[in-house]
Amino acid sequence: MAHSLGSSKIAGSGSFLLVYKRVAAHWRAIVLLLILGFVAFIVAPFDEFVPFMLILFALLLLFIASQIFWIGRILDLGERFIPGKPRRVLLAIIAGMVYLFVFAYNFPSIESTNTHVFRAADYRLHSVVLEAAYWWWFVGSLLAFLLVIAFGAADRAARAAGWVYRKVRTAIHERSATADTETALLSPGRRRLLEQTAVLVSATPFVAAGYGLLYERQDVEIVRQRVRLARLPKAFEGFRIAQLSDIHIGPFTTADYIRHCVAITNGLEQDLIALTGDYISWDREAQGDVVGVLAGLRAPHGVFGCLGNHEAEGAIEESITRLFAAQGIHMLRQERAPIRLGGETLNLIGIDHGGDHDRRLQELKALVMPNTVNILLTHYPHFFDHHSELGIDLTLAGDIHGGGQMSLDFVHRGLNLGSLMGVPYIRGLYEKGGAQVYMNRGVGITGFPIRLGARPEITVFELSRT
Known about the structure:
Elements: H1 2-12, H2 18-25, H3 27-43, H4 49-81, H5 88-115, H6 125-171, H7 175-185, H8 188-214, E1 221-228, E2 240-244, H9 255-266, E3 272-276, H10 287-294, E4 303-306, H11 309-313, H12 317-326, E5 329-331, E6 335-341, E7 344-350, H13 357-367, E8 374-377, H14 384-390, E9 394-397, H15 401-404, H16 417-420, E10 428-432, E11 435-439, E12 457-464
Parallel strand pairs: 1-12, 2-3, 3-4, 4-5, 7-8, 8-9, 9-11
Antiparallel strand pairs: 2-12, 6-7, 10-11
Helix pairs in contact: 1-2, 2-6, 3-4, 4-5, 4-6, 5-6, 6-7, 6-8, 9-10
């Protein structure tokens, strides 16, 4: 290990190649930490809360390690570029004070993100800029740290392969070829390539986080989904339902942006609009603003919705329901609303998020109408395993933001934060026993103001019998 570090310094102590080499210096500790975390996850009791907290704890440890690592790299750069070569301790004090200031300034929003503490949102420009900068650094530094670890592992594997190759060549007495290989492995060209790769690897997550913050966060995608329902009444063939979910009005989901989403939705030639919860983020007082903007929604058969966990946790379920009702928007709270067309009926149901599991299931069962299609609006489909036996044909839901707003589902379905947390239904259409559920990615954000691989979504469903 010491020899590896010594070689790194000889290769160029001022180069950015130190990034992955310093991670390699703590390789055994990192591997041990990951193994212990994995074992703890496997042996933990089968309880949804325990694995979730273990994962959060592992992420916290990784984040702390990443901050120590990157602050160290900033100090390296400071010693290299600041004239006079000030003492490292002075640079560390300055960097620490700046970091603590930004963290302390953003602590209320961080606390709200992680513990659902509801407080007034701060819309002042400097507050929004500082919070955006913090979350850009938070996401970028954590992802970059993980990539650097992977890069360091790949380089170690390459070195191991070279060592094995040299041993094999030596064993068959081809020392000249071995010497050539060793020279090639340690050549300045190879060192430059590794240095450039390390820079690229480290910079990519910061660029991606900036893209997700400045662009993809509000790059709304219109998803058109055809849904086949065998029991659909003939009069409802081609019936169109537009869905909006997870509005989360706040500093990064402004009224103007929501108004833009409303205009898009109104232009989809829908017959009915469904809203599936989480209209506020952390500010209870924002309920009037979000209702006022959503009041612009228009559909021939009306606008209906259900409530989400943010309304429940913010204790505004009653008040926001009244505000919506005053604007002609019907919040279905353990209620059904039969939609009639051409003498036939489609049953629309809405239930609140949370509550006593068994009681809510019985309430849902009582709302189902036989001999027609039943469509359920719910913030998250907790009872989807029972929907087929209950007679619920289609469920519209949201809550997960397409996988926690960060996803690599374009590479493989399941590569996202939601799946990491053990959430079974993330995004898109799922089918089980003849029942279907659609998970909407939502249009707003909560937590960090970044979306990567999980664009905000407005969905329009076309119902069909075949």
